[in-house]
Amino acid sequence: MHAFLIVGNNHETRIREIEKRLKELQISQWDTIRLPDQSNVGIGDIRDFQRAMNLTPQNSPAKSGVLTDIDRLTTEAQNALLKTLEEPPPKTYILAETEHPELLLPTILSRFSLVNLGATISKAIDEKITTEFIDTLLNSSPGKKIQLIDPFLATHDDAEIFVTSLLTVAQKELLHHPSKKLIALIKNLLTARSQLSVNINPKLVVDNAILMI
Q1: pLDDT for 106
Q2: What Rg do the C-alpha atoms of the chain give, in angstroms?
Q3: Any long-range contacts for 35-44 (C-beta under 8 Å, 24+ apart)?
Q4: What tens digit of pLDDT does each residue of 149-188 get?
């Protein structure tokens, strides 16, 4: 078995890397096992994953297991996955990705070949969101506000990271320099974060949150 953990850049880029590798391996969707789309993946989900991985590939030369946001696995689920990584079925590939490899058990990390796609978008955004940025944002014209935030809204992932980073800095600033504008910004950002979680247009959501201040 070959197991690869893809890190760095952003979620969409990591997913594209996985899909590219599946295409190169000529593994069809019918022979690709994926985790359920839920915030926490437990030991029962991993047991189902393991049973499916043990089946013979039907339309491809091998089977693949795709573990998106592998940090969603509970500690118990990670320990259960370790058995598959240590005693893999024949003709099997595992492709995983995460923004937070530090949340994985060292025993899990040691079983993967690491593929680093470069600096994470979250780090790049965090470095740009400062108290000075917020001050400029709060005191700019509507047109200038749009210009300031547009570079952070290229993808849905970018928008979520931007809102979270802006919210974190704004909450810290409120402790030292409380103001009505900061309170309004934080309230709007909390609403925006909730809306982004249900896949509403990210630019529309963030633009509204900032322009309503």
Answers
A1: 86
A2: 21
A3: 35/66, 35/67, 35/68, 35/72, 38/72, 39/72, 40/72, 40/74, 41/72, 41/73, 41/74, 41/77, 42/74, 42/76, 42/77, 43/74, 43/76, 43/77, 43/80
A4: 988 887 787 888 899 999 999 999 999 899 999 999 999 9
Report yes or no: 10 and 120 within 8 Å, Cβ to Cβ. yes
CATH architecture classification, 121-211: Up-down Bundle (1.20)
Residue in 2, 1, 6 with CA at minimum distance from that of residue 104: 6
Average pLDDT of the residues in 98-126: 82
Over residues 14-33, the pLDDT tens digits come to 999 999 999 999 999 999 99
Burial of 104 (0-12, 13-18, 19+ CB in 10 A): buried
User: Residue 201: CB partners within 8 Å, gap ≥ 6?
Assistant: none
Distance, in Å, from the CA atom of 200 to the CA atom of 195, rounded to the nearest integer, reads 6
Token representation of residue 86: 């240590």
**Rounded distance, CA 172 to CA 150, Å?**
23
Those residues with Cβ within 8 angstroms of residue 15's Cβ, 6 or more apart along the chain or in another chain: 68, 97
Q: Which CATH architecture has domain 2-116?
A: 3-Layer(aba) Sandwich (3.40)
Domain ranges of the chain: 2-116, 121-211
